[in-house]
Design a protein that fits this description.
The protein has 190 residues and is mostly beta strands. It is built from two helices and eleven strands, in the order H-E-E-E-E-E-E-E-E-E-E-E-H.
Length: 190
Amino acid sequence: MKIKNATGVFAVCVSLLGLQIAITDVQAAAGAISGTVFNDKNSNGVNDASDAGVSGVVVTAYDSTGAQVGTATSAGNGSYSLTVSSSATADVRIEFTTPNGYESSFQGAGNGTSIQFVSVPSSNVNYGLMIPGNYCQDNPGTGVAGICLRPGTTSFASSKNASSISKTIWRGTGPSLLTKNEDTGSLWGM
């Protein structure tokens, strides 16, 4: 049996059943996708003037069938542009490879996640990264302040030299005096 005859038999069967089908020629989508990969230093999801581009980030486009249809690597200023030449549809999935030492920043205005869905062509397909170690060190500081609630008035001789605000290292040991009751008066909150 030849393919030509099988197609004709199928068309006759569909016609006898009173069904109509439309066979259309699907055109491949093509175009450019561009954007910037940036170090979102304040982690606000916005590419601020102080945020520098991140180079060497691989950006890959996949079509609706899962086939890779384009790839690019971000330049020194973080910009990239990839050409999609034969996507099954105009809708593509963009994946950013996060480099070692970085994590995705918060999604915000003009910044998406490491996987984004866009239509070809598209611009401003941006990806913000951050270096977590820049915001939280192993030793978060020398102290945490707290108020010391004491009964009575602050004018008593026995309480005026007592601490009203003390600090301690974050593990909660070794409180030390910051201010005295006679300096602050009564405290109701901090």
